Amino acid sequence: MDLTCSGCESEICSTDQYMKCSSCKKYYDLVCLNIPVQSFKNYKPEHKESWNCPSCLCSLPKSDNSRFSVGIASQPPIKTMLSNNCENVNMKRGSRVKTTEQESTTTDTSLLLSEIRLLRQEVSDLKQQNTDIGLKLSNFSDALNQKLEDFEKKMCAKDEEIILLKSSILQLEHKLNLSEQETMKTELEIIGIPEENNENLCHITMLTANKIGVQLNDLDIDEVYRIGQKRTNPADKPRPIVLRLTRRAKRIDVLKAAKERRPLTSDDIVKGTSSKIYINERLTKTNRTLFREVRLRAEIYKFRFCWVRNGTIYVRKAEKQASIPIRTPIDLDEKVGPPQTAEASAV
């Protein structure tokens, strides 16, 4: 026989764990009555047979109902039982109290809250770590910027020092070049005279001077020699002859006469094929390089005249314009013009 609980109107699954009201004869399961299974097992048969449901108990007059009690050891007083049962009986279908599920939900909630607290603590620790890392990075960046600033100051100071040193070197080189050029104030350079073995250079220079109208003797010549490595191929150009005179006035006479007698050849001076001869002031290596560059720039920038006088290079753009001295490469860039690339020269 199927029994239905009058509290939740659900079928009572158990065949012996239920209570039957002695008054209304209705059935109730232990869950709706909130009676633990162990307590139900302790109930005496007389108590079960005389048990009244909460609805019937509520309808009884207020009097001594001790006859319905089971005993202190086995069941609470009827008044307390009535109060508890009335509070826990739910007459709606499907609303049975699920104590085990509530306890499980409470446990899950506690675990979830604990996990959330742990997660919040970990997030807080990460924030603190990020703050510490950010502070360390900021300090490191400040220190690095300070070092870079100090390094830049040192580099600027070094650059200024290098500029001063370069300027000093250029000044010293210029002074050295002037001193070296001053030692050559009595020297001439004769270019183009054919070179022969066992030649008498002193005789050759006197013949050359005599050809341009200047008389030289042994007392006028201090030293004469060819400069450069000795040629191994006779077809190579002859080496220049350096003539050092004893007086500067005689050097001026030779240069002036050579300028007036141009063009000058080697005829009547040495035997062999005739060649052009050039007599110039002797220049230092620095001044020779500068003079070569000055002639190239003068041609580019349309300067008509370029010459050397007393060891100084001069240029002049037109016939009646003032001569411009060129003593250093800086003078060349500023007074003549900067060097041009191959593309600019082609244009």
From TrEMBL:
Keyword tags: Metal-binding, Zinc, Zinc-finger
Protein origin, superkingdom: Eukaryota
Check the record and name the InterPro entries matching this protein: FP_C (IPR057251), Transposase_22 (IPR004244), Znf_FYVE_PHD (IPR011011), Znf_PHD-finger (IPR019787), Znf_RING/FYVE/PHD (IPR013083)
GO molecular function terms here?
Answer: zinc ion binding
- PHD-type domain spans which residues? 2-59
The entry's protein name is: Uncharacterized protein LOC113496018
